[in-house]
Every structure is written in C-alpha cells, then in structure tokens.
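Quick note —
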Amino acid sequence: MISNPRLTVPTLAGILFMISVLLIGCYQFRWILQPSTGFTNSFFDVPIVGERDNDPNLTEDDWANTLRNIGLFGVMVPDGWTVDDSIPYTIISKNAALSNSGFLVYNAAHSQTLQDTIPALPGYHWWGAITDRIAELTSLDSFYFTPRIRTNATAGTFYLRYAVGDKDYWDRNPADQYNYGGGLSDPIEIVISHGVGTQDLLNNANISMYPNPTEGMLHVDLEGYKSEVIAVNIYNTAGMMVKKGEILSSLSTFNLTELPKGIYVVELRNGTFKSRTKILLR
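Predicted structure written out below.
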C-alpha cells in the first residue's frame, strides 16, 4: 500500500474504472477497464484494448508492410499480488486474413527489464510477459487481452500501471519510456477492502454440492458468490488430501472420477473461514 499526496489519479464511480490515455511511442492504450474496487484474497479481470498511435513518422505503408515481432506486456502490482500466466491475446488487422492470436507468457527477463528502466514504486514489482510466438502486426488496427490479477490479504489503496510494446524493434520496448517511448499508462487506483460476508458465504446453508452420492462429477453452487478465490481441498477418511482446486465462479464442477469409491470430505476455504461437507463417491 502506498500513500503519496502528490499522486493524483482520476476515478469514476461504479464498478469499473475506464481510462483512455494517449501515450508516446508506436502503441497506445485505447481502453484499460480496471475496477475501482476489489476484495482481499480475491481476483479481478482487466480488459485491455490497444492500438497503434499517431506517430507522424510512420506512414500507412509502414504499417501495411512486414511488421512482426515478439510482443511485450507488463503490469506493476503490489508485492504479494500475482497475475495469472498465459493470457490469451488477439490482434486485429485491417486485412482480416492477417488477424492472429496467441498467449502472453510470463518472462523473468522482461520483468527485470521493466524494473530496471521503469522502477516500481516501493512495495511493488513488475510482472512482465511476452507473446509465445511472433505477433503479426501488419496493417494493425487493434489488439486486446484480459489479464486476471489476484490480490492478497492486505486491504488499502493501490496503484497499478500497465505497459505494452514489442521487443527491441523500432524502439517500441515499453521499458524505453524516457528515450524512445512505448505504451505506458499512468498509475491507476484501486481500493481493496476485506471481503464482506465471507463467513456467511461459506455457511453450509449457502453451499450446494450435488449429486451426493456422485458418480464422479461434483457440482458446487455458492449462493451470493462475489469474485472471491475459494480454495477447494478434498480429503479421504484418513485425512490425506487427495485433490485440490479453486472456485472462481458461483457454479463450479470438479472431476473426481480418478478417485477410488468411498467417503470424502470437501473443504472450502477462504482465509480463516472454511466449510466442510462429506460426499460419497460411488
């Protein structure tokens, strides 16, 4: 958590904070839809749309010709927060036949480059990713992807920052913010509070597990679910954990067909709150 009276970030009321910023370099963000609020031990999705900028040195012919390279992405997050790896991305070309897609995959070297050239705020770090293949940017119209960011147990006001570019090609590396530019957002505020009603959520009255007995496919329905990460631990009668997973929506399904028939305990946990239910696998 940081407190900086000189740092001012405009915010909008409501669930989503919408920002459209013009940045120097050859790429810019069209939209960053970061929520303005969130919960501890939870997650939130950030839909991002980018486009080429209005660099007068690049003509339409420049964009229409061979423009391909490894794409770069980064987000500055508080220490203790994580970003889900392998983020699907899509590139839209003005020539529909050249539109393409792939995944942004965590890369330690790119993360360090961002940290070295755009130092993170105290208590923060850069999470950087690169495309898993050559990104076809010929006749670029726009690109989009949605990182999922996971919080920890600390509440407070935080500021995230986003960067996008490509790898050392025509100087569009977002780490070159001072010399060459690149797609780099201003810090964007998000207020994280402790989850309200977590204990009630994990009350057995709000949890439905069916069918029970089950032939192997177990459905877990949480009434009142609010984008919280609920850990699922399954134990046999000897107290040994035999399977684990996560609940990320109000209705989740778990495949237990690899487990021997018998009685199991399904534990749902969020921080110190937990619920345990017995099921029969037959």
